[in-house]
Amino acid sequence: MSSALHLAPHAGPSTRFRSFTPRDLDGLLQRMSLTPADRLAVRAVTTVLPFRTNTYVVDQLIDWTAVPDDPIFRLTFPQSGMLPAPDLRRMADLLARDAPKGEVQRTAHEIRMRLNPHPSGQLDANVPVHEGRRLTGLQHKYPETVLIFPRQGQTCHAYCTYCFRWPQFVGESDLRIATDDIATTSSYLRAHPEVSSTLITGGDPLVMSTDVLRRYVEPLLEIDTVRSVRIGSKALAFWPYRFTTDRDADDLLRLFDKVVASGRHLALMAHFTHPQELRPPVVREAMRRVRCTGAVIRCQGPLVAGINDSAEAWAELWEETTTLGAVPYYQFVERDTGPQGYFGVPLVRGHQIFRDAYARVSGLARTVRGPVMSAMPGKVCVDGVADIAGERVFVLHLIQARDPDLVDRPFFAAYDEGATWFTDLKPAFGASRFLPGLEVG
Ligand SMILES: *Cc1c(COP(=O)(O)O)cnc(C)c1O
Ligand code: SF4
Question: Cofactor(s) for this protein (predicted)?
Fold first, then answer.
């Protein structure tokens, strides 16, 4: 474990939340030997993409003896490959010659706009309309589940370098996807009894105080047709003290108790990227405390190059979360936005990694589904590669679909070694569409 360079001497690890922003980057990087050119490249990346980490990630998760290959370092610290080489050079040149701020910002904006900030208009397409108004803080894509984006929960304890919500963290989100209109959310859910599941998400809703979170959760317990409440969060990985020593940690657990006592399923949809995130004792204590409330911890995360693109990493992650009483849920494919060129893994290789890991773990951990693309028509699962009638094809199916009639029907795409996303795929056997009602991306 490294020494706490930026903190006053203390007996144990600091349990007071403190985040680091791009201003702190130079100081943090003193822990490694970087050339001036490396430092400039890192600065260039953070001018375009968001950066935020915190004391816990820096002092307890990252193994500084393994940097720059350490997976948690790569999970939160910018790497030069995250920008296309010409963009990186251009931005580095501007910074090297101390170009005016306006010019730097204009260039950053221009580079961001080429990184597909709003992939396939997904957010826009999922916004429900209620009594003539668009409810921009909700998403309703699949009949039985509504996503809620609380206004105060649109940041995270640290930022993942591969984050698909990156535009909102650099102020480029033109879609105001957040709400504090709780009454209208309730009114919408009452008008839609087919919605049995709600998912409070972000950002990370657990950056909110328990008192604020409560204002979103408690009204859901008044609606009989809502049978489950999910909270999507990376706090177990990035700030487990949220469940142990934070001032309102006990209040949070009492809120969880209350949801469970209402007779509903409470799921903490925990984002985990690498088994290293499970090693500190405080994570295990946090998971134990959450489980004591009767909440179920379900684990999900994306497969990303250079961080967790090995069967060993996934097998350990799934086995270890299962041992700790959590349930592996989804393994995602990195979305077609931001630094996807750097973190994306071709579907062929992604499926091999999934299969190799899946084959190694106990049946208890084979609750996981993947690799899954959350694409325009729905959640597309890559089932594998097969040779059918002389043609090599991908076998796929939809786990979730806008059109429920398309769920769980096998379909086939032409084999393509380079494909990284659904929109790269073409129907196999010369067909014009994947299924009746399922068109090409
Ligand atoms: C993944 C997802 C859900 C939840 O799907 P489940 O299969 O029920 O976990 C709901 N809405 C959207 C937009 C999603 O991407
Ligand atoms: S926790 Fe989720 S929303 Fe937050 S930075 Fe990571 S991927 Fe993005």
Answer: pyridoxal 5'-phosphate
